Structure prediction request, 170 residues.
Amino acid sequence: MHAALELFEQRGFDDVRVEEIAEAADVSTRTFFRYFEHKADVALGLAALIAEELRASDDAFETLVEQLRYYFERVHEDVDLYRTQALLAFRHPRVRAGRIEAVLAFEDALYEQFRREAPELRAKLAATVASTFVASVMEIWVENGAPAPGPDWEPALAEMRAAVDRILDR
Prediction:
């Protein structure tokens, strides 16, 4: 992902080939395609693996929160890289479609677990709020000029957690 985003930032998404990403990452194209189906998927990192982890977890919501905190650290460590990622996710049609697929995969995994504790509509609403959290915060951050050191995550996370708890009557 890092190699790809650096190339996308330098030359633009459409002007970078998978072979160039693989070479920059020091992997074969075969290895690239083991992890990513399309070039656009690499711009989103390992979102598919995170969705699998959520599905396998006994507490998908807490697993999501752990993954979010890890993501927050990475954004703060390399603001420019994640600014590029966010811009691609909001502006490039194929990457945007991939972002939507990732959000829906997170939503599905959370819904499965929330459904155990709440009626369907409440479970679905809570899953939607939680799964769109990162995209919402990143979009607002980019709209505000994407200042360093990145979004102010913790207050937003507390708001999201409170909304989910309220929807689920926790």
Notes: The CA atoms of residues 158 and 164 lie 10 Å apart. DSSP finds eleven helices and no strands in the chain. The two ends are 37 Å apart (CA to CA). The chain has a mean pLDDT of 92.
